[in-house]
Write a structure and sequence with these properties.
The structure is a single chain. The chain is elongated, with a radius of gyration of 27 Å. It is of the alpha/beta class. The protein is 22% helix and 32% strand.
Length: 174
């Protein structure tokens, strides 16, 4: 297996019958949607991909993608870098019946009109889904740490009002 640029599109059936495997990079600059949700440019994505046919005759694409993203810590509002890793296992499906019969180990993927999948787009989708919902530093590395924070002004406590049942209390004691 040689380190190469990962192809933009791929015919999964042809790649699986040839037992193709790729190990390479997807340039981070090409992943526009991922760059839009990051605070800075994402680094190149290291991808390993294996195509094959399992014992049941199901075509699959199995792989792993790793990248570093620059995000804004939602606790202290400073930039930090985090590694995002995704593992995936897809199988191309053409009909709803194929999707329904697909084992749980595989996620269905749709091919375009010429029978190919957009591999870069697929990897980008998986990385976006794997991003942290609320990005934060570790408590040790964060400027704010685990300090309590408040946003806005807190109103002072109001004076205590007299208890409306105080009169009943007096009657009860008589």
């Amino acid at each position: 297996m040689q380190t190469v640029k990962i192809p933009v599109s791929l015919d999964p059936v042809r790649a699986a019958t040839s037992k193709m495997s790729y190990e390479g990079v997807v340039p981070g600059k090409q992943l526009k949607r991922l760059n839009e949700v990051c605070a800075g440019d994402c680094s190149d994505v290291t991808v390993s991909l294996e195509c094959g046919v399992d014992l049941q005759g199901i075509v699959y694409l199995k792989g792993k993608a790793v990248t570093e993203l620059t995000l804004i810590c939602q606790r202290c509002m400073t930039l930090f870098t985090t590694e995002v890793t995704v593992e995936f296992c897809f199988s191309p499906c053409k009909t709803q019946t194929e999707i329904d019969e697909l084992p749980d180990a595989y996620d269905p993927i749709e091919c375009n009109e010429i029978g190919e999948i957009r591999l870069h787009q697929l990897i980008e989708d998986e990385l976006i889904v794997a991003m942290p919902v609320i990005p934060m530093h570790d408590d040790v590395n964060c400027n704010m740490g685990s300090q309590d924070m408040s946003v806005g002004e807190i109103e002072p406590a109001q004076e205590e009002r007299p208890n409306p049942f105080a009169v009943l209390e007096k009657l009860k004691s008589k």
